[in-house]
Each structure stands twice: as C-alpha cells, then as structure tokens.
C-alpha cells in the first residue's frame, strides 16, 4: 500500500511538472518542452549537436530543429570547431537564456525555497536520498530502453 501512494504521488508530480514546463515553454515562445533542453547548455556549456543528442535522447534531426529554434531566438550560435572545420559547436548565450527563463521561474523558485525551508534537515536528507535514487533508477531505465 505504501508503494501505491508514493507511486501515485510520483506520477502526479511528473504530470504536473510537465504541465508547468509546457506553460513556461509557451510563455517563453517555445512549443513543448524545448526550453528544458536549454538546461543542458547551462549545465555543460558549448557542445556539438551530437553531444546534445546523446544528452537529451533526441534524434540528431530533432536536435537540428531544436538548435534552429534556439538560434532564431539568439539563445545559441553555431561556430566551426577550430581543430576540425567539419565539426559544428553549439555555443549558448547563457545570459540571454537566463534573461528569458529566470523571470518565468522566479515565483516558483521562491515558493520552492520556502517549501524546502519548512522541512527539518533530517527530512531534507530523506527527500534528497529519494530523488537521488529515483534519478538513478530513471537513468538506468532510460539507458536500457535506449539499448546503452
């Protein structure tokens, strides 16, 4: 029974997260969750389209369209690699990305900080442990589904 409650809450959390990110995407001028892929650039910095495809799980064709949309909004730019002119590096404009997205997440972030602050240090450690283990499980499942 305990698993059923947690599983249902986890699913509801995931569904609600998707709905929120869809709303943020629309406000940012994107369709779908395109804006979430900007997080890879914020985390990792410049990378090739192939590296983004590997990180995101998207096909290279989908990544090309994604990069085109980001480039139109001046959030990334393509440049040729100095060591191999056939290789294209996608370079993010982190300040432009943050200027676009930060205002859309500001209230959510503030309220999330308040929520987390309402828990004891011990409770936060339990929540952290759950998320770390859940992320590991999802990564394992993703890798198996992607035959990695």
Automatic annotation (TrEMBL):
GO terms for molecular function: DNA-binding transcription factor activity. Transmembrane segments: none annotated. Pfam families: MarR_2. It comes from the Bacteria. One of its GO terms (biological process) is response to stress. InterPro entries: HTH_MarR-typ, MarR/SlyA-like, WH-like_DNA-bd_sf, WH_DNA-bd_sf. Residues 2-136 form the HTH marR-type domain. This is Transcriptional regulator.
């Amino acid at each position: 029974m305990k698993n059923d409650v947690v599983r249902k809450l986890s699913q509801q959390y995931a569904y609600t997260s998707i709905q929120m990110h869809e709303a943020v995407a629309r406000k940012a001028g994107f369709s779908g969750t395109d804006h979430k892929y900007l997080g890879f650039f914020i985390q990792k910095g410049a990378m090739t389209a192939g590296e983004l495809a590997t990180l995101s799980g998207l096909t290279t064709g989908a990544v090309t369209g994604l990069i085109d949309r980001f480039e139109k909004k001046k959030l990334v730019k393509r440049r040729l690699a100095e060591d191999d002119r056939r290789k294209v590096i996608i370079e993010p404009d982190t300040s432009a990305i943050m200027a676009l997205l930060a205002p859309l997440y500001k209230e959510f972030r503030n309220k999330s900080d308040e929520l987390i602050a309402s828990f004891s240090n011990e409770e936060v450690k339990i929540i952290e442990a759950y998320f770390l283990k859940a992320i590991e499980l999802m990564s394992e499942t993703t890798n198996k589904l992607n035959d990695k």
